[in-house]
# Entry
Amino acid sequence: MNTAWTKNRGWGQMDQFTINLLFVGGSFALYIGIAIWARAGTTSEFYAAGRGVHPVTNGMATAADWMSAASFISMAGLIAFVGYDNSTYLMGWTGGYVLLALLLAPYLRKFGKFTVSEFIGDRFYSQTARIVAVICLIVASTTYVIGQMTGVGVAFGRFLEVDSTTGLLIGACIVFAYAVFGGMKGVTYTQVAQYVVLIFAYTIPAIFISLQLTGNPVPALGLFGDETGTGEPLLAKLDGLVSELGFANYTAHHSNTLDMVLFTLSLMIGTAGLPHVIMRFFTVPKVSDARWSAGWALVFIALLYLTAPAVGAMARLNITQMMWPNGGIGGGAVAVEQIQNDPRYDWMDTWQKTGLLGWEDKNGDGRIQYYNDTNPDLEAVAAENGWVGNELTNFNRDILVLANPEIANLPSWVIGLVAAGGLAAALSTAAGLLLAISSAVSHDLIKGAINPRISERGELLSARIAMAVAIVIATYLGLNPPGFAAQTVALAFGLAAASIFPALMMGIFSTRINNVGAVAGMLAGLIVTLVYIFLHKGWLFIPDTNSFTDADPLLGPIKSTSFGAIGAAVNFAVAYIVAGMTKETPQAIKDLVESVRIPRGAGVAQDH
Amino acid sequence: MSDNSPNNAYWSANMRIILVSLIIWALVSFGFGILLRPLLSGIAVGGTDLGFWFAQQGSILVFLAIIFFYAWRMNRLDREHGVDEE
# Structure
């Protein structure tokens, strides 16, 4: 029988399942309570939630909005199993805030409208430009939700003790209910509460593990500290261990340098092109506050992002040492009997149920050998010891953060807290994106373009339908995701990078770009990037319809996740060429651009 | 923007500050973190080298510094050129 749920780690007679439910339920009750207490009644109140709020508070809310399943659940796992090469996620998802603060936020705030597509529609004096921007936003946001659903599936699969497909279906229903409940999304204080839950859930287990391994209570410093057992630097020890097992050296650079640069750049400019982040800077009280707010948002994001590489490296060390408990190959691999009976290995049993972790004693020696069986250097070692292949057959990267406190044998309440944090991250961002999609469809597309005389009830109904359609699509594709949560989210960033960011930047920094140029640029950037992604990940992300793989991409070393930077360059180039061949921007629009560039005269943000 | 605009000096000062900030932004991430890492490999930091630290932590800390510097500098520039919101 499964001992993990009945095992007692303190907290009286409660089992882990009950404790998880208490933490998850308690945190949700808190969010709903705050949402009711500070309910937004009207549209303008909903948007104005950011106004009159201190930049620090606003920064915290932005951070909660921003950090999703990709940051919380997925990222550290991708770093853990790859090492230095995946530093791209760390630099990419923080470096974008520099672009946002320097190139977009203050000007969009001065412009004084609520949505990205409104800015593009007004600046490029074109209804077509507005609709194209809406389409770009819908495509990027939908891809983003697919990544969130992957994370939701992992989290629910684990905590409800079901396989990840069932977990995903249950999670989808909860996300939908959460998004329809709606109003809480705009309430800054709910997001502040979500941030607090999320950051404690991420850092507390990291602090415990850092203390266990290095004696340093700050994980970010522990990463570069010495391991307490041997006095050897933690990273040097990890490098030694993984190299002995034939895996790539953790701290060395193995990936293609060009692809690494382009991927980082895609994530950075994608960050500055995603509507739900940009929107937060529209409604701060002043232009000067927009500049500060971006900084405070990054402070709160950095608390997680500086911890994440420590979580990854330390988890990798813990896992490797559990599989080789007697100090490397010489001491022998872990015995199957130990995995079954030793309570420290219970996590393997519970995670196996999700279908995201698996092992098999292929050579029947009663031990589980974890090594890189694709590395020719290990063939001799394997032959000598009678190994017939890696026996830790499946270790999904997305489970690492959630399994981490169990792997490190931390108390029950820490495991419950991580459950609450992971769900807060995934659900809040997924629900926020669904809201963004539904309002883009109902407000910008149907009311703004197709049928301006639609009734308020009709608009609301179409918003609900759009939300339902988006979640069905995201759930279906989430069952066979194009990658791990963070990789799928990275594709969404590529799409935003190729379509929205260049249009916003040219709209502010160049008066030359006219309506036709902007539309041509956005379409070219979006289409070329979408086609490149579909060629590698399958058309509409449907499995097995791809012609290329990221292991052997179409254009040299450039993977589909890195193509956003190329798409952005295409967008800029096409916009300049087309604008050069067509009619000049009218003087009224040039004056508008000039007024956007100076802070003086910024009023409060206007509704349409 | 035309050359005789009264805001021209403000805007070109802003452009200079943005340019310098973005050079630093690129230097610590794409530079120290990726392309120039081999040059920094001699400087040891906790079991690895300085390039690894920049890629995983250093760049993030510099990003923070850039944003706060820019906010402070621009708010001052706004007042110097009389284009602030007050």
